[in-house]
Structures are given as structure tokens and as C-alpha cells.
Amino acid sequence: MMMKKILLVLVFMSVQMVQAEENLYAKHYKEQNGRGLKSLLVEPDTKMYVSNHADEDNIDMLERGYDMMGSTGFEAGSIMPNMALTHAKAIKADVVLVYSKYASKKSSLSQLQLLKEAAETTGEIDEKALEADEKYRYYASYWAKVPMPIFGLHVIKLKHKDKDGNVTPLDGLKVLAVIKGSPAYKAGLKRGDVLMKLGDFDLQEPEALGPAVGRYQGQQVEVAFEREGAPVVTKATLNSLAK
User: Fold this and answer.
1) Among candidates 22, 47, 45, 29, which has minimal Cα distance to 140?
2) What is the dihedral of CA 146, 26, 21, 9, to 10 degrees?
3) pTM surpassing 0.90?
4) How many CB atoms lie within 10 A of CB 46?
């Protein structure tokens, strides 16, 4: 019986060591858009922040001139958030935002009770049974500072769905975020505006914004948009190149 107990303790210690060495933030990381985005700095001073408001944080990061490199999501027992920082440094992120919330309890038995029962019977135990009882959902987003853009907007195409399920695209492009200090920001555009035209370009799809911005880079151009349903026309002086 003593040998069984020793073997169980060794198994438990081995599982704990493997769990300690495995970085789940790295294991479950998914790069966004496959662009290979990373910090502009060779050795970035990566910062980590813990939060509970992912959607608001995403908009804030975009407005501050960051772009998302990728994200990590998984369920596990209690783990330290500094594992997210370790992975963020490895992929050369400038900032990592970490979120966690309680998910569920896997079992009413504690690890100690499981070991005790196994020692008194067969001496065998499933490694999965040694996982922590409580489960948490973990999420982290990784961000890199990007050069100042030519114009400085993040937009999406909105569609209206009626009661019969018919979908109709709405005019223009909804502004999700305006990068602070950018030409769009200086021209007075705000989150929630609906961008209609840039110069001679009618903007009905997000893909149309890039060519329009490229056409007028380094020039002053007329910008037409709607704010709370009212039409507005202003001018923006676009940057020549990202800098």
C-alpha cells in the first residue's frame, strides 16, 4: 500500500510540473488575419492590463493607434495572468489585455480525496481527474502600436434586418473608431458617424476606403458623412504615407 501511495504522489507531482511548464496562453493563441503584426520596437516594453470590459477596451485600443495581433481563449483551473505576459513578450506585443471569469465546478471531490480513494483501492487514477475542481474562462488580446495612418478610421458595413428576415444594406460605412491625432480625428469625425464619401469615392463597402485614401494621400479632400442622421461635409488633409 505504501508503494501505491508513493506512486500516486509521483504521478500527482509529474502532472503538476507539466501543467506549470505549459503556457496555455501560447498553446491556444490565434493570430488575427495572418498579417504577422508585431511591435515596431525591436525589444518592446510589453505592458499587461487586467480588465472585464473587452468590447470597450477594443475600441479604446483602436482609438489609441493600436491594432490587434491575435487572441487567446480557453478554460482551465486557476492560473497566473503573468503567463499571458510571457507569451506577449515572445510574440513582441506592446500590450496584452487579460480577462477571466468563473465558468463552473468540474467535480465535488477535491484532489486530495481523489488521491486518498485511489490509494485505498487500485492505486490508479486518471490524470484528468487531478485537474482543479473550479474552471475559469480566460481570454487575452495582444496589441501592437502601428504607424500613424493616412486617414485614421476603423469602419464596418451595417445591414438592416426586417421582421420577415429580409436584409438590406444601409448607406455608408459606420465609424467604429477614430485614431487620435489622425487626419480623420483632426477633421472632426467621431465614433458612430456614417462615412458616405471621400472626394469622388462613394463609400458603400469597407474595401472601398483603402483605394480612396490612397488616391488622395498627401492632399486635402472633402469628406461627407452623417451624424445622427444629419449630413455633414468637412475637409481632411491626409498624410502622404503611414509614418
Assistant:
1) 29
2) 150
3) no
4) 21
Q: Residues 6 or more apart from 233 whose CB is under 8 A from it? A: 222, 223, 224
Domains of the chain, by residue range, sit at 2-145, 153-237
The CATH fold of domain 153-237: Pdz3 Domain (2.30.42)
Q: Give the C-alpha separation, 235 to 181, whole Å.
A: 15
Is residue 203 a contact partner of residue 209, using CB atoms and an 8 Å limit?
yes
B/e letters for 171-185, b = 16+ CB within 10 Å, e = fewer, are: ebbbbebbbeebbbb
- What are the grid coordinates assigned to 183, written together? 487626419
Task: Report the distance separating Cα 233 and Cα 176, nearest Å.
Answer: 19
- Range list of H helices, the chain: 2-21, 24-27, 54-63, 82-90, 111-120, 183-186, 209-215
**Pairing verdict, β 95-105 and 134-145:** antiparallel
Residue type, 1: M
Instruction: State how far the alpha carbon of 60 is from the alpha carbons of 48, 66, 180, 198, in Å.
Output: 15, 9, 10, 25
Are 42 and 104 spatial neighbours (Cβ–Cβ below 8 Å)?
no
Backbone dihedral angles phi then psi of residue 71, each to the nearest 5 degrees: -150, 165
Identity of residue 231: P
Grid cell 491556444 in the structure block, residue:
28
The tens digit of pLDDT for each residue in 105-138 reads: 654 445 556 556 666 666 565 555 555 567 899 9
CA distance 123 to 114: 11
